[in-house]
Amino acid sequence: MYELQLCAPACISRKGSQRVRPWEVRLCGETRGRGSSFGLWHSRVSIYSPSSCGAGSSLWRNGPRRSSFLYALANSTRRVPSFESKERNASSGGFPLWEWYLSIVEIVVLEHLDDPEDGFGLQQAVLEEVASGERGPTALAWTSSRYVGVTRPETCLPGFEGAAEAAENLGFPVLIRNSGGGAVAANEGSISFSLTFPVKDLRHGLYERYAEGVDLVAAALGRLGVVAESGPVEGEFCPGAHSVRSGGWRGVKHAGLAQRVTRRAARLEALILVTETGELVRVLERFYGALAFPFRPDSLGDLPADVSQVIEALSTETSERYGGEVRQPQKRTLAKARSSRGRWRVLPDTG
Questions:
Q1: Could you tell me where in the chain the CATH 3.30.930.10 domains are found?
Q2: How far is Cα 280 from Cα 185, in angstroms, rounded to an integer?
Q3: pLDDT tens digits, residue range 286-325?
Q4: Could you give the angle at the alpha carbon of 321 between the alpha carbons of 317 and 322, nearest 5°?
């Protein structure tokens, strides 16, 4: 059972130089976590009345769209998957509790990067700009040439040097990513998608961001006719609970999620495998084999869509949930991204 509440608190808050009264939308309900009893949850959004902000304010411009956003917010919150962990249920005395603040998300898309390091640099530049307040919440989607992405701890594993050499011999440069998870492989048929938000406390929100990210990616794939869900896949790359799959435990992994959290910003990122997954199977077999890690070739498969269609679905789903429009990255952000070339490589480029 769900309840949507709109109320005006007695307090007055300041927005710029104008004193305005915040309204609050609350969506309350119940959800069942796996292995736990029913837990209450609610989502809170602070908004400002149009009479206080004025008709020209960015929040209330194109009023009907904002109403659509609130409707989408309610639906997206209701669709939070019911796989909350025991730790999450215990984090607030057994009651999963979080807040989503009404904010427009800028959607940045950049395709066909010749150097995947520019994509890594772009993610980092966006994270730093959000943390410093130079930009607001941002969704980023980019594609590039081949690469294998690993975490820093993986570089210390026995057999890593041989694994990296095997990947390089297949034409996949090995890059170190600064988020969690395990080794991934990508090519021109893959999409790196991320949501970067400012945070006030890095200790909170980890599970909620995962839940929202998995739901968003699954919903975007659903627009293309893919029945996707959250859950691990047997023999998957980058194994973990926060995968987007179809076909259940023995099915196909379409996306893996990870996070990078700093004191002032958090980035939830997803690698979505769309097409050309056959060559990813070959490099992942070699890489995981050199590390003596399990990998099942059938855990990968192409989606019934191309990269541009999936990017459009992601952009549409993001826009309906958070507002915002698709645009190219700013020149200064691109310059920051390119200035970090060489920072991400495991082995030097001798070509």
A1: 106-339
A2: 6
A3: 999 999 999 999 999 999 999 999 999 999 999 999 999 9
A4: 115
